[in-house]
Description:
The protein is built from ten helices and 14 strands. It is α/β, with parallel strands linked by helices. The protein has two domains: 15-135, NAD(P)-binding Rossmann-like Domain (Rossmann fold, 3-Layer(aba) Sandwich); 160-324, Dihydrodipicolinate Reductase, domain 2. The chain has a seven-stranded parallel beta sheet with strand order 3-2-1-4-5-7-6, with helices on both faces. A seven-stranded mixed beta sheet has the order 9-10-8-11-14-13-12. Helix 6 (159-173) runs parallel beside helix 8. The chain starts with 14 loop residues before the first strand and ends in a 10-residue tail after the last helix.
Amino acid sequence: xxxxVQPIAPDGAKARVLVAGGTGYAGALAxxxxxxxxxxxxxxxxxxxxxxxxxxxxxxxxxxxxxxxELDLADLDEVEAGIVAYPHGAAAPVVAEMRGRGLLVVxxxxxxRLKDRATYEEYYGPHxxxxxxxxxxxxxxxxxxKWIREAELVANPGCYxxxxxxxxxxxxxxxxxxxxxxxxxxxxxxAGRGGGEGTAFVTVTENVNAYKPSGHRHRxxxxxxxxxxxxxxxxxxxxxxxxTFVPHLVPVDQGELVSCYVTPRREVSQEELDQLYLDxxxxxxxxxxRDVPPGxxxxxxxxxxxxxxxxxxxxxLVESAIDNLWKGASSQAIQNLNLMLxxxxxxxxx
Length: 350
């Protein structure tokens, strides 16, 4: 494999990237973002179906002219970095092959997000690359930028955890969350290109419904990360005592809004709450603090997360909006890859 170009040389050298899983919504968008990135070169887009077709034929709104091809391990010798957009379980062996050849990898699946192996296997089954388990940096740049810069493998968070954790992190760091109810709503693209039960147009249109209201696989990801944030903030015993997570499907193609209802451990004023969020996010390029509740349309097709914190009677309300395909998946992967390559994290995204 060619020598890594990390950081990117000032003479305009580009890091060569392979996107694995280019038929899905997240993979195709990742390919588009790499294709138009000023410091990345899209070399291959692989797929397990639809091979022989151009990405731009499968997704006419994107301009990627490359044909989808089956993954050939020899292709890995031609690139420095990989973005893996395979389903949970299928991603781990591909990530292992890439890491074995020295590639920097951003994985969009859940295969490397959790730190507890037993929890992973409870929700996802046996792990496909146990030697790598627990060794990835968690890819929320606003919280883990230092570790991402040093990482060779980054686990891109899920869309619901991204919105939820960013919304709640300042409270968790201060040890303020006693109990939290997360009411989450996502567009239908969150179910993936293949959809799933309950995603047919006649079921979704003019309708809103909860799904998997108990035991959803994103709950342990959110709970684990909030506990780690509390511990890092010196509040080791102040992880949320109770966390309820209920996702809902809404009749839009993409977008996500989470409403977090927090019972605080002590009384908090609006002035203190505002200062907590300003201290945490005031300088973040992709977070905007709002004084009115955000909507999904406000952040569509951007890497932004809009957050609205409010003291509401005896609770704290935090509203957090992202585009589930962008900040919740593909554009966040580019933000992470920028950091791993020593680039300004806003490159290709601002």
